[in-house]
Structure formats: C-alpha cells, structure tokens
Amino acid sequence: MVTETEKRAISTIVIVIAMQEEAIPLIKKFNLSQDTNPLFPKGVPWVRYHGIYRDLNINLIWPGKDLNLGVNSVCTVSASLVTYASIQALKPDLIINTGTSGGFKAKGACIGDVYIASDVAFHDRRIPIPVYDAYGVGARRSFSTPNLLKALNLKVAKLSTGDSLDMSPEDEVFITANGATLKDMEGAAVTYVAYLLSVPAIFIKAVTDIIDGDKPTAEEFRQNLAAVTVALDAAVTQVIDFISGKSMLEL
C-alpha cells in the first residue's frame, strides 16, 4: 500500500558521514552552514551542517572529534547515536550514509570505485547461538533505488560493517558469508537505526583500499583518502541532483 509520504516529493535529507575529510567537500559543494543553535544534547561533539540545495533541505551530520583524543568519532557506536538523534530531531524523508570503504579485488573492486550498497550486515558480532547468530549479523536490504541506479550507472555491491580497520581471520569468514564486496565501519549501524525508525536509507561508498591487496590497509587508506573523496563528492552530488523533485517511489 503506497503512503502519502512515499508519493510526495522528497524534502529533507540527512547525510551521515564519519570523517571530517569526507565531509568538507560536500559542505562546500552544497554551501552548507554549521548549526549555531545545535539540535543535539549539550556536550556531545556531533556537528550539523545544513542548507537548501535546489529544493532539498540538506542536513549533513558529522559525529565530530573524540573529546579526549581529538580524532574523528568513527565506528558503529557514534554512527548509530547520531543517526538516531538526527531522525528524532529532523524527521528526514531519506538518510544517506556516505563515506570511504575497503574493497575486495576478488570481487572486482578498484581504488576510487563508487558503489551503492544493496545489502548491509555486520561481520564482527559473532553470537554462536541459534537465532542470536542471525541477530548478530543483522543482514538487511537497503532502500531500493532502481531508477537512480539506471540513470547514474553506479556500481552495486553488498557492504559489511565492523569496528576494526584491519580484518581478522574470523572477520574474513563472516565477510565472505555476507557476500560483501565492501567493508566499512558505520553502514550496518546506520541501517539498524533507520530500520527501527522506518526511515529509508541508502549507502554510497568509495573504495580507498584493497583489502585483499599487497599494501597495508592503513597506509593505503591514508594514501588514497584525498583523491577518493573527490570521486565520492562527485557521486553524492549526482545522487542528490537525481533525487531533487522526486518522490521515494520515483527512486
């Protein structure tokens, strides 16, 4: 049954992005301003940038920097918290989780490739008890966007999420079972919250490092971050331009 929300034009978008380096190009592209009257609880480092781009109310949410260590607040806990708080405060029509990821060359991934994630799951929540095992993996489909994919000719792949940059042998088993081409540190957490609160979510990920390659992951990530962020910025802009003026049903 089609709801009125699905039929009306998309108005408010929340973009959840983990790293300042990934966020800055989009803040500039969409001419977003930092919120001077924060919507979030006092004391949290979360930052909202907002503005109107074409006919869309865009809200880019960055979890900010860790209050003790001064590094980007990456990983699943921060991602789930800011997603929940943003939905409660802004009531978005759509969530876009974007950022960088690792990719598997065995699955065809190359540095700089940009993907839309069709499915998202965890690979580091191992609970070897019947039913709890499936809960731990938490596999879910992302919101289907067949028209967007056709129009923009974007690659599609499955995404697997965990809280570690490296990959243990146990992680590899679960990532393989998830059928994932991509590995990140936020996606499945965003999916979980979006699913709980019935908000459609899509995932745009750009590959900075080849997990099954011959270079150390951390080194390759740092080496490619700036250049890959340019490709990510271009893809997100294409997606936003396509969304403008359309309903959820038209995606």
From TrEMBL:
Gene Ontology annotations of biological process type: L-methionine salvage from methylthioadenosine; nucleoside metabolic process
Domain Nucleoside phosphorylase: 12-240
GO terms assigned for molecular function: methylthioadenosine nucleosidase activity
Superkingdom of origin: Eukaryota
Protein name, UniProt field: Nucleoside phosphorylase domain-containing protein
Organism the protein comes from: Papaver somniferum (Opium poppy)
Record lineage: Eukaryota, Viridiplantae, Streptophyta, Embryophyta, Tracheophyta
